[in-house]
Every structure is written in C-alpha cells, then in structure tokens.
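Illustration 12: Acyl carrier protein.
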Amino acid sequence: MGVHVGEAELKDILREAAGEDESVDLDGDVLDTDFADLGYDSLALLEAASIITRRYGIKLSDDELENITTPRQLLAHLQNALSAAV
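Figure caption equivalent — predicted structure in token form:
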C-alpha cells in the first residue's frame, strides 16, 4: 500500500513551514492560489520542501520549487513522486 498525500496533509506541512505567521490563511479553497498570494516566500517553500523530504523521502530540487507556484501543483508533484516510488 502506497503513501498518499492529500490536501489536509499538505496544508499541515504548509502551516508548519510558515511557522507562527498569522497572515497565512489556508482555510477554504486555496489550492489554485499562488504561494506568493498566500504569503509564502522562497524560504517558507524551502522549509516546506525540507519537511516533505523528512516525512516522505521526496527531494524537491530548486528548479522544481521554482516551477511549482500553487499548492495544487505541489500536491500533484508529491502524488506523482509517491506513485513513481511504489
């Protein structure tokens, strides 16, 4: 049985990566909202990538992170990587 990352798990990762920043609001349908519009800068995304590597063993390259601009894209990338690892 493979590991699945869903929207709730992704939001947990993003909240953890944002730290205590109260301006980040992930409630509601934010999957297609740009990370910049959600208040995520490159450091927050690097932290999210680090959490993903620790939890799921998926390493995101700098190029991949630059091309992933929304939570939906990140979620799809994680699901594809987990499917390929099975």
